[in-house]
Specification:
The protein has helices at residues 2-21, 46-62, and strands spanning 32-37, 40-45. Strands 1-2 form a two-stranded antiparallel ribbon. It has 63 residues and is an alpha+beta fold. The relative contact order is 0.15.
């Protein structure tokens, strides 16, 4: 259950900084789903979340 809460919070934070990260290709990866519903753009960044989690893991192992 804890991983689900962390994933939801990470998705919210990720969606907030997404416009700045799109310049680097984050948010347009194969497992990132984006669709429009009720006049709003919804995004589920599964692929980018996996990539950023892996990078955070590698950095934590190096430090």
């Amino acid at each position: 259950m804890r991983w689900l809460i962390v994933f939801i919070l990470a998705s919210i934070v990720f969606s907030a900084v997404l416009p700045h990260l799109r310049r680097f290709g984050i948010g347009r990866m194969p497992l990132d789903f984006t669709f429009r519903l009720f006049g709003r753009e919804w995004m589920f960044p599964f692929g980018s979340s996996l990539l950023l989690s892996f990078l955070a893991y590698v950095i934590s192992r190096l430090v």
